[in-house]
Please model this.
Amino acid sequence: MNNILLITQGIVAILIIILILLQQRGTALGSAFGGSSETYSTRRGAQKKILVITIILIIIFLGLSLANLIY
Model:
């Protein structure tokens, strides 16, 4: 049981990392070197779905972590 939890937790962690890297926030070159990017936009379409999936995976990851402590 413990091995299944650890493997699942590892897979979820990798998916969270990939989804976080896919999110776009201040991708302009100026913001990479400390320039201020004062434009904020609402998330639409694929960006919103990626955000929701990321939040769901983080909740699953926390649940798996708690289950790993119990078992």
